[in-house]
Specification:
168 residues; 7 helices; alpha+beta; 51% helix; 3-stranded antiparallel sheet
């Protein structure tokens, strides 16, 4: 899940209100529309945006008469940390490390063969991140062995992890 996309989605008060209602229990479109006093068409648009992002999932529940109703529920927890200081802003989604993996898993379950290549790319990214983290730990634990004493303290200011290639 992309942090910018999450911020964009929750930047809308109506969407935040929908999410608040969905924390109580799954609801269907007309319930949300009535409770928020917003038209069903607008509610559907908001739900679609949140569903595409992966914040909510539709489920179908049988009712006594008629066709099953489409309910919406929150699919996963998302925690965002935002630090605003005079000299910078830091934003981070807690737990985002595996969101991409979960999305690929869902695609694999649905039979999406393109997800196999995406999984290979993600594995490479994880390997690079591990090498980067190990090197950083080594710099901290053995500063006397390092040629450079530079330690990156703000990971958001480097693009090192995806491309990081340390020679063993």
């Amino acid at each position: 899940m992309n942090l910018e996309a999450v911020l964009d989605v929750i930047g809308c008060k109506t969407r935040r209100d929908i999410l608040a209602l969905l924390t109580e229990e799954p609801r269907f479109v007309s319930q949300l529309s009535q409770q928020l006093n917003v038209g069903q068409k607008a509610i559907i648009g908001h739900l679609k945006a949140m569903e595409e992002l992966g914040l909510i999932n539709p489920t179908y529940q049988k009712i006594e008469r008629g066709r099953p109703r489409k309910y919406y529920e929150i699919s996963q927890g998302v925690e965002i940390k935002i630090f605003i200081k005079p000299d910078n802003i830091k934003m981070h989604m807690v737990g985002e490390e595996f969101t991409e993996l979960y999305n690929i898993e869902e695609r694999l379950i649905r039979g999406d063969e393109d997800a196999i290549n995406d999984l290979k790319i993600l594995i490479n990214k994880y390997k690079n991140a591990q090498r980067y983290a190990e090197d950083l730990l080594n710099q901290i634990e053995n500063p006397e062995k390092q040629k450079s004493k530079t330690i990156i303290t703000d990971i958001t200011k480097t693009k090192a992890i995806p491309e990081y290639n340390m020679k063993n």
